[in-house]
């Protein structure tokens, strides 16, 4: 009992897609589509400092030390799976449940996991539900991702907590006047590829793992190394790597971001685990356009 403590539990299921057929090809396609969704879920958990408790055929569960991490992971995986291509005209989606409470020893799921499982089962495809116990722990920067949700017409047992739906709300993305909207995009260049961070794509992930938006091949980069987010105050670089993220802007002195975040002013270049002064094909260049 001494090892039990309060954690934030996240349970995610993959749902939807076309009906399976009896052919080997159809079964393999279906499995690959499920695995693509699960991989996006894994990336979101790792990027927000979650600890996976294991994977089933159609789902994943994880624990987080901080409720903010679980909420951000849920928002991120909802967005990333929503953008996956359909299979035979039918899209897969995820449903998630989040609860803060007592968990078991080590990687054993506990009470919080069981409540999160009930919420995930009650959630609709493309939806994440969280209890008031989670929302009470959120920072001001994350709390606006949760909105009160009615439990009517949901197959939920009597719970001791009000329920909230979790998603990036429309006002969480920078809103600017139409005349200046074109100035509020960040252009990223990496090995000939160009990515725009804007209203349509407010988050870009960097890392060595395939599945990131910008894949860094240099072995000094972490599998999930960093990300850039579009926020109300501008574009923010967030590092969660082992070796740090090196940044130089407007030819100023290079600085290292490690386990923290910084506002990007641009133009500049980014080294994922290595100095921006190196002649390195994996350098990332950015500018506000």
UniProtKB/TrEMBL annotation:
Protein name: FHA domain-containing protein
Domain of life: Bacteria
Native source organism of the sequence: Azoarcus taiwanensis
Domain FHA: 204-247
Organism placement in taxonomy: Bacteria, Pseudomonadati, Pseudomonadota, Betaproteobacteria, Rhodocyclales
Signal peptide: none
């Amino acid at each position: 009992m001494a090892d039990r403590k309060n954690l934030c539990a996240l349970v995610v299921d993959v749902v939807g897609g076309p009906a399976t057929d009896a052919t080997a090809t159809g079964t393999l396609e279906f499995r690959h589509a499920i695995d693509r969704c699960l991989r996006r879920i894994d990336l979101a958990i790792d990027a927000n400092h979650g600890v996976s408790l294991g994977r089933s055929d159609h789902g994943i569960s994880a624990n987080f030390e901080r409720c903010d991490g679980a909420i951000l992971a849920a928002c991120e995986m909802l967005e990333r799976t929503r953008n996956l291509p359909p299979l035979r005209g039918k899209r897969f989606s995820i449903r998630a449940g989040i609860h803060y409470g007592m968990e078991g020893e080590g990687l054993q799921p506990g009470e919080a996991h069981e409540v999160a499982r009930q919420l995930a089962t009650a959630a609709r495809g493309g939806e994440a539900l969280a209890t008031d116990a989670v929302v009470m722990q959120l920072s001001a920067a994350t709390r606006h991702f949760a909105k009160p949700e009615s439990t009517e017409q949901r197959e939920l047992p009597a719970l001791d907590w009000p329920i909230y739906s979790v998603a990036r709300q429309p006002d969480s993305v920078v809103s600017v006047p139409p005349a200046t909207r074109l100035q509020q995009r960040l252009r990223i260049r990496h090995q000939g590829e160009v990515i725009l961070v804007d209203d349509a794509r407010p988050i870009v992930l960097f890392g060595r793992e395939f599945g990131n938006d910008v894949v860094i091949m240099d072995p000094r980069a972490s599998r999930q190394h960093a990300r850039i987010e579009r926020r109300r105050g501008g574009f923010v670089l967030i590092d969660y790597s082992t070796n740090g993220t090196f940044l130089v802007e407007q030819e100023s002195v290079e600085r290292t971001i490690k386990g923290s975040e910084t506002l990007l002013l641009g133009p500049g270049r980014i080294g994922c685990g290595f100095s921006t002064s190196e002649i390195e094909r994996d350098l990332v260049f950015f500018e506000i356009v």
